[in-house]
# Entry
Amino acid sequence: DLGNFQSETQVCENYLRWRWESHKPALGPPPSGVGAIAKMRLVIMAQGNSKLLLEAFKNLPEADRRTLSEELARTGCAGQRCHADSLPDSRGPAFLVYYG
# Structure
């Protein structure tokens, strides 16, 4: 059913929100505004100590926090942007590196 179609970015953003809302201990409502996607992605990547991580993110120098916010909100998909984040432009290029 194409009426329920979601873009790649919407699927990813829904997943990030679900992980935030499922977090134990609870982190409160999902973030919004500049840095929202970065916070949600960093919490997942850190795999623990989320409140400490969020405090460290908040205490970063403004330029570093802005860079992380911009880079982690990039979709790599033309015409798509993350709605939770208020960055005006989240186009690519984007790359993802996983390590084991």
Notes: The chain has a mean pLDDT of 85.
